[in-house]
Hints:
Blueprint: E1 2-4, H1 14-38, E2 41-48, H2 54-62, E3 70-73, H3 80-84, H4 86-91, E4 99-104, H5 113-117, H6 122-140, E5 144-152, H7 155-167, H8 177-184, H9 186-200, E6 207-211, H10 215-229, H11 241-244, E7 250-254, E8 257-262, H12 264-278
Parallel strand pairs: 1-6, 2-4, 2-5, 3-4, 5-6
Antiparallel strand pairs: 7-8
Helix pairs in contact: 1-10, 2-10
Amino acid sequence: MINYDVSEYNRLNSDLYRKEKRNLQIEFLKLQNWAIKEGKKIAVVFEGRDAAGKTDTINLLARHLIPDHFRYVHLGIPTENESKKWFKRYEKHMPKEGEIVFFDRSWYTRATVEITMGYCSKRQYTHFMNKVISWEKSYIEDDLILIKFYLSIEKRQQSKRFNERQTDPLKLWKLSPNDLRMADKWEIFSFFKEQMFSNTSYEQSPWIVINANNKMVARLTALRYLLNEIDYEGKKLSKPKTWDVGINNHRIEHKGIEFSGLTYQQFKLLQKLIQNQSS
């Protein structure tokens, strides 16, 4: 698990946000063109609590991509048959060659929402946790690039966003009774979330945890991480100088030991060393 935390970054004004967003979106379009040309398959998973900003982040990432070569997947309530054949439910949505697929919640719903709310049995949950890594690795061995993001927000931040939705007629549709019931089970969800991190984060596909209390920072952080991790043709990703000023709170965990208080450069160097040791 990589805890990529920039919550204390307070130098991001609106002008800087727009400039950084444009630069990163240009690079992401280059990445997509490379994926199309080389027949690459890229799946980007977004998990997190309700109101964490998953959909908005995907919207920013996908805004200027070529429509025919990316898909947005947000599945509703599963049928009884889909609930029994959980992995098969998602297999038909996995990316084809030359395609990027964004999952707004994914198969990991079983590891968090479903078990928290009692929508699946303990047996189904255990089966999922025992099988999910081998299922993912079968795709990775077939050249899938899998990135798993978890957008993390504090309880008070979620309450604030819920209140905004309740009082804004244009956002009210975003708040469901189920969201409120989930919020009441905060601690239970937290327990299963930690189980997910501990048991489903591995070398080829770690969980990337992003502090999403600041939506602007979270969106750009996710996009910059994607661009950093994937080597694509014509890559000209500038060093994030502005992001480095005053930021010493990047964190990374390795073998149960957390390294915190890192600058961006220290974080990337340590991440590379850990990956080299594991290979």
